[in-house]
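Lecture 7 notes. Example A: sequence first, then its C-alpha cells.
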Amino acid sequence: MHPLSRHRGGSGRIGQARDPSGLTRDISAFIAWANDQAYKLGRPHEVIPADPSGAISPSRFRRTLAWHIVRRPRGLIAGAVQYGHVHVQMTLGYSGSYDSGFPDEHAFEQWLYQLEQLTGDHQLLLDGEHVSGPAAESYRQRVHAGREQFAGRVLTNIRQARDMLTNPLLQVYPGRAMTCVFDPAKALCQQHRAEGDSRTTPDLDDCRTTCQNIAYTDRDTRQLRQRAARLHALLGDFLAPSPRSQRIRAERDRLQMLIRDHERDQC
C-alpha cells in the first residue's frame, strides 16, 4: 500500500513510474497476500498456484494487454486513453517494439479472436441466421470458406499469425449494428494501416451507410431495433428544436427501412 516508502525510503517522487524489479516484488507480494487471505478465510481452493514458468514479471503481461486490446470494445483506444497517448500507435510502441515481440503477441491474439468469431458466425449460419445488405453474399462465402480453410490450423510460429491475418477470408469486422465485409476497393471509410503492418483495416467509426461492404446479420438487426426504439422515444420531447426532431425522425425512418428490408429478405 506504500510502495515508495517501503522500497525507496520515501525519496521517490510522487507519481514516478516503478522499475521492473520493483513491480516484480509487488506482484510476488500480492500473490503471497492473496494466498494468505485465502487460507485465513478457509478458501484454499482459491490459492494462486506456483507458476510452472517461473517468476511473474511485468514483461509477461504483454499477452494480457494484447488480449484486452483485441477483445474489449475499442480496446486499443481505451489503452491509449489509459496511458494518456495522443495516437494509438504510441500505445503499441509503449507496449513494445517489434524487437520486443509485443506486436506479434497482439497479432496472435487477433488471430485467435478472429478464429473464434469465424467459428461462431459459421455455426449461426448453419442454425439459420439470416444476412442481408449489399455484402450479404460475400459474408456467407467468406464465413463458409474461412471455416474450411482455417479450422484446426496450428501455428508453429507466432509471426505466422500476422501473415494469416492478411487473408481476405478473415476480413470480416463486426461493427455497431452492422458487419463490415471489408474490400478496400469498395470501402468508403478512412482506411488504417499501422506502422510495420502490411494489413489495411477499415475505420468502423467512419462507416458510411451507402458502403457496399456492409452486411446485416440477425444480431445486427436486433441492435438496429434498439437504436430505432431509442430514437422514437426521443421524438416525444415536444420542447426539442424542430431541426433536431427532423434529424431524429429521418434516422429512425432509415433504420426502420433497413429492418424491413432485412425481414423482407427472409421471406
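Example B, a different protein, same format:
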Amino acid sequence: MIAWLDANLVSILNGVAFGLLLFTLAVGLSLIFGMMDVLNLSHGALYLVGAYAAYRVVGEAGGSLGAFLLALGVAGVLGLAAGALLAGITQPLARRGHLHQALLTLGVALVVADLLSALFGDEVHSVAAPAGLRGSVRVLGHGYPAYRLFVIGVGLVLAALVYLLVERSRAGAVIRATVADRDMVQAIGVDTRKVLVGVFAFGTLLATCGGVLGGPILGAQPGLDDTVLILGLVIVVIGGLGSVKGAFFGALLIGQIQVLGVTLLPEYASFLLFGTMALILTLRPAGLAGTAARTAAPGSSG
C-alpha cells in the first residue's frame, strides 16, 4: 500500500488540486440551485469567462503575481455583474419550474460561448502561472508544481471561508431563513430580493474566479465550459444540494476519480465517474451531505 501511494503520489496530489479547483465552481452552483432553487446552466460559461480573463491579463508568456491578482479582480467584477443580471432575468421564472430556467440559462451559456469564440478564436490558449509559482517543489521525495500546491492551499482556505459564511455567520443565517420561509423573513424587514441577488452574485463570482485559478492548469478553450459544468453538476448531485460540506467532499472524490481513473484505468474513466454517482445516489439519494427532504423554494411563496 505504501509503495502504491508513493508511486501514485503525484497523481493523488493532482486529483486533490483538480478537485479543489472544481469545488470553486461546484459550491457556487450548489448554493444557487440548492438554496435559491435556480438551475443555472450558464455556470460553466462563466468559468470560461474567468479563464479567458486570465489569458488576456496574464497571457501565455506569464506575468507577475500582481497581474494574476488583477485577473482575479477583473473576473470577480464580471462574475458579480453576471450574477446580478442572471438573478434578475431568472426571478420571473421562479414559479414556472426548472425547465424554463434551464432553457434560459442554457441560452445565455451558448451566447457567451459564441462571443468568447468570436473574440479569442477556437484554438487552445495556455495561461502561465504567476511569477514565483512556476517551478517545482519537493513533496515526499517527488517533484511537484508549486502552482498546483498554491491551488490546493487556496481551495482549502476558500472551503473554510465559504463554510463559515454559510453555516456560521449572520448572513448565512439570513440566507437559510430566506430559503425556509421567505414570507417570515420579509415580515421582519429583510429585503429578500437582495438576499437572492447576493447569493447568485456570490456563486457566479466563485465561478469566474475559479476560471482564473484554473487557467494555468486547464487553459482556456472552447468546450471547456461544457466539461466543467458536467463535472460541477455531478459534484452537486453526489454532494447534496446547498451543502458546502457535500460540495467539498464530492469535489475531492470526483477529482481523484478523474485523475486516477484516467491514469490507471483510462478506458473506464467515464464509467467510473457516472458509476460512482449512481452508487452514491443508490445508497444516499439526497447525496453525501444532503437532507432527506428539500426545503421550500424561495420563489414558491410570497
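Note on Example B: Residues 293-302 have pLDDT under 50 and may be disordered. The chain is about 70% helix and 5% strand.
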